[in-house]
Design brief:
single chain, 215 residues, alpha/beta, Rossmann fold, 3 domains, 6-stranded parallel beta sheet, two-stranded antiparallel sheet, globular
Length: 215
């Protein structure tokens, strides 16, 4: 299951700025990151007059825009989706999801705090707060990082949420030769095999799976 971490904070705390610092630190380590921005006021990504906008206005429930380098999906929803629902229904092939906002969701949270703008933290450990990023110290029983310490936060996230995933390995041998796997193929094979094996009685939590097909 893809881990989710919410970057939260009060207005003008610098959430987006910190995410812009954190993303390069994580991608340089080989992780694929998805981001989710919460907007309580609604938004428009397909501008009036564009083909995608015309499709939506004509009554399409889901519109997908595809190009050689990018793809975007626009679909109707009947309520504000939780992060779990967004992950399970919409996001694939990544190692971590970073969300901006979603302060009321149940996912682990890192709060951005600036003493010049705010007087007290927005979240507590009861709100699943796992760390604070701030220009002042907090003694609240969880790690506290400076606003410029994106590397330290990346180390913290990697150790707590990504290290075990990075240690997972799948090896494909064909006629005794190891075949290199692209990330998509690796994740597809690992997910499919683990899913099928987990469904077998007595095989719910395997530590090692071996499959051999001989012709």
């Amino acid at each position: 299951m893809i881990p989710i971490i919410s970057i939260v904070g009060k207005s003008d705390s610098g959430k987006t700025t910190f995410i812009e610092k954190l993303l390069p630190e994580l991608t340089r380590r080989g992780y694929r990151i998805a981001t989710v921005k919460h907007d309580v006021h609604g938004f428009e990504v397909d501008r009036e007059g564009k083909d995608s906008w015309r499709h939506k206005q004509a009554g399409a429930h889901t519109v997908i825009i595809s190009s050689p380098t990018k793809a975007a999906l626009i679909r109707n929803v009947d309520r504000d989706m939780t992060l779990d629902e967004i992950r399970d229904k919409l996001i694939r092939e990544v190692d971590l999801i970073l969300s901006e906002g979603f302060k009321k969701d149940v996912q682990p949270k890192i709060e951005i705090f600036r003493k010049a703008r705010h007087k007290e933290l927005l979240c507590t450990e009861e709100d699943h707060l796992i760390a604070v990023v701030s220009d002042r110290e907090f003694d609240v029983g969880i790690p506290c990082f400076s606003l410029d310490d994106s590397k330290g936060v990346a180390d913290f996230i990697e150790k707590k949420y990504l290290k075990s995933k990075k240690e997972e390995e799948i090896i494909l041998k064909v006629d005794g030769r190891i075949v290199p796997l692209k990330p998509f193929i690796r994740d597809f094979l690992m997910g499919s095999i683990k899913g099928m094996v987990n469904s077998l009685k007595g095989c719910e939590k395997p530590n090692k799976i071996e499959i051999r097909i001989e012709d």
